[in-house]
Amino acid sequence: MFKAPLNLSAARVLITNDDGIDAPGLRVLEAVARTFSSDVWVVAPQQEQSGAGHSLTLRRPLRIRHLAEQRMTIDGTPTDCVMLAVKHLMQDRRPDLILSGVNRGANMGEDVTYSGTIAAAMEGTLLGIPSIALSLHTEDRGEARWGTVEALAPDVIRQVTEVAWSRNCLINVNFPDCPPDEALPLEVTIEGRRKIGDEVQEGTDPRGEKYYWIGAQRDEDRFAPGTDLEAVYRGAVSVTPLSMDMTDLGMLARLQSHFS
């Protein structure tokens, strides 16, 4: 179990994302982290890595660019950033907490299998560090309400780190698309159903060759009670514990019975 409560005022915090080093959500998360810690590190991808999932760069060298003290960018994936930060850049003292985000757009339902934001938290969890992914829902990809995150995230992080959680677990937080004073209280939810790929566009490039572009439209269930989608669309902050152990225990029992 990760020990609790985590002493945030003494914590070394690593921040990363999948939207890239220049993303506004990264700046927001850095500001949030500095409300409770003075030891904040930023190690983020050089370019946007949305949809990168838990990918690791193995076939080419990675380069680190130092932008300022405790602020670096890497020409790789979110997973690369966490691994190099923990194993190289911060090897004198590992981070006590990893925060990934804030992603522009929610990461709910099956998004978690594609998301580089979630993947960074997954890598942190695998390295034995409490990790939280944070995302902001933007209705129809409209203007992002970063003020909602700035107002609510510090208390959400404090509440989550007051509870011990399994070393196989990462925390997925999604903020609703509404002003902070209209947001409903935090709700603990399960992963809902939300599958990207419902929109595939066909086109022709200047050379006459066909191409296909996967759009952002999703097939989703916004109304299933207790899910992250239902909570966020209703205006609540959703907190979902995700397990790195993907074993289907029900199917495991059936297979063991069948093959015994």
Quick overview:
The chain has 260 residues and is of the alpha/beta class. The protein is built from 6 helices and 13 strands.
Keywords for this entry:
260 residues, alpha/beta, 13 strands
Explain the overall architecture.
The protein is an alpha/beta fold. 25% of the residues lie in helices and 27% in strands. The strands form three sheets. The chain has a nine-stranded mixed β-sheet, with helices on both faces. Strands 9-12 form a two-stranded antiparallel sheet. Helix 1 (24-33) crosses helix 4. The two termini are 33 Å apart.
Radius of gyration: 19 Å
Number of strands: 13
Unreliable spans: none
Task: Provide a count of the helices.
Answer: 6
Please identify the oligomeric state.
Answer: single chain
Order of helices and strands: EHEEEHEHEHEEEEEEHEH
Please describe the biggest sheet, giving its number of strands, its sense, and whether it closes into a barrel: 9 strands, mixed
CA distance, first residue to last residue: 33 Å
- Strands of the widest sheet, in order across it, are 3-4-2-1-5-6-7-13-8
Secondary structural class: alpha/beta
Mean pLDDT figure: 93
Helix content: 25-40%
Percent strand: 25-35%
Instruction: Give the CA-based shape.
Output: globular
